[in-house]
Amino acid sequence: xxxxxxxxxxxxxxxxxxxxxxxxxxxxxxxxxxxxxxxxxxxxxxxxxxxxxxxxxxxxxxxxxxxxxxxxxxxxxxxxxxxxxxxxxxxxxxxxxxxxxxxxxxxxxxxxxxxxxxxxxxxxxxxxxxxxxxxxxxxxxxxxxxxxxxxxxxxxxxxxxxxxxxxxxxxxxxxxxxxxxxxxxxxxxxxxxxxx
Length: 196
What we know:
This protein is mainly beta. Helix content is about 5%, strand content about 45%.
């Protein structure tokens, strides 16, 4: 028998998980070259909350030889509660606002974003483990506290895609080799500049 002894008690901070939204085609966003690539905007300034709830679903069973029920995880229904200042010049925020302003429904409410674990670097410079997510945007309130604030929930649509994300070049690479080529021409819009 062996015992693992932890050598570090470092905790991930709020800033160690970063979110980038696909803003390709949004007003004011330069089309990437070559065509077919994506432009990612970091959800940073203005976003005061972006809270993930994996929402694990369970099913319980009891067996005749046991006194205690067993609960198994059967599926997930992830959602992200968000709160964001209405900084209307930022493309990812304008995209969310347009959904509620134009009373969009169905597939017109779907956005794509990447959740990047900055505490999980890979062997490639500026590249980290990440998840690609499609989600339906629900805006539950447009509130004012001097500044206008949008609150709501992003509801997961289908399976997330595991992979890596280069935060400098804005390239998401799926873990599955079959989809790597289709993701190789992405660009990034970061917090401090409009395009890299």
